[in-house]
Amino acid sequence: MDWLQRFLTSTIGLKVIMAVSGLVLVGFVIGHMLGNLQIFLEFVEEGMGREALNQYGALLKGNKLLLWGTRVTLLVAVAAHIYSACVLTLRARAARPANYKQHKWLSGSYAVRTMRWGGVILLAFIVYHLLHLTVGSEVTPSIEHCKVVGDGLQCPIFDNVVQGFRQPGVVLFYVIAQLALGFHLAHGIWSLFRTLGLGNPRFDGIIKKIAVGTAAAVTLGNVAIPVSVLVGLVGGAV
Ligand code: HEM
Fold it and tell me: All domains of the chain, ordered by start, with CATH?
């Protein structure tokens, strides 16, 4: 087990932890976005988006194993991701020569600095987002939790989302956070491929396309929801 401890504390081991935990988080972010995008089924037929979103919430909340399995996996992934980022940052600082300067997008010190600040904005966003749409608390006192009705669970996710995105300040914060997420994903996915051994310049073009394409799709999809609610395209005008 000595080799495992040595690997997990080595720089490459920490990069692998960062890549694998990042992959788990990317998977969640894409799945979560696809689930939330069902709100736009309202455009197909009124009530369809509401039903799909509420059912998606009930499916997750109604299955304790799925709910807690997802929560614990996310928590472990976020903790591992932040831990490896902090240790790697401290090591890079200790090793870096004073005049190191490289301003290349998707790689180099500029992108890495953007990643660190982006990561801090994302962490703040996740805490706010959980208070806003999951816990309720003072941030959204109007939030309604799932209720047991007969044999099933009824979750008013659609109404919570519409209620939650009617304030321009909240939507602005979401948009800023999604832009930070987009930059974070673009560089993160790019680095992930390299850490997992696809750093060959032959693949650079395609990896860049995958990284930027995924980041842009997630950003656009996530921004579309709060903005559409705010302007009254979904959920009706206030
Ligand atoms: C702007 C687009 C987003 C919308 C509309 C949205 C919507 C929601 C809603 C409605 C819930 C509550 C679900 C429920 O109570 O069943 C939720 C929970 C959650 N969201 Fe989001 N979300 C968005 C973006 C994100 C992003 C970018 C992340 C991560 C970086 C994220 C992470 C989470 C987590 C971790 C939960 C808690 C799930 C649980 O109950 O364990 N969300 N989101």
Answer: 2-95+104-230 (1.20.1300)
Q: How far is the CA of 188 from the centre of ligand 1 (A)?
A: 20
Using one digit for the tens of pLDDT, what is the confidence trace for 41-88?
A: 999 999 999 999 999 999 999 999 999 999 999 999 999 999 999 999
Asked if residue 38 has its Cβ within 6 Å of ligand 1, the reply is no
State the distance from the centre of ligand 1 to the C-alpha of 130, rounded, in angstroms: 7
Residue 126 near ligand 1, beta carbon < 6 Å: yes
| Atom 18 in ligand 1: residue holding the nearest Cα | 134
DSSP SS3 for 146? coil
Question: Which is nearest to 55 in space by CA: 137, 144, 153, 186?
Answer: 153
Q: Which residues contact 71 (CB under 8 A, 6 or more apart)?
A: none
* Count of other CB atoms within 10 angstroms of residue 172: 13
Asked which of 150-154, 175-179, 220-224 is least confident by mean pLDDT, the reply is 150-154
Neighbours of 6 (CB within 10 A): 10
The minimum-distance atom of ligand 1 relative to the CA of 178 is 27
226 lines ligand 1 (CB under 6 A): yes
Q: pLDDT tens digits for 89-148?
A: 899 888 866 555 555 556 666 777 788 889 999 999 999 999 999 988 777 777 899 999
Q: Give CA–CA dist 178/174, Å, rounded.
A: 6
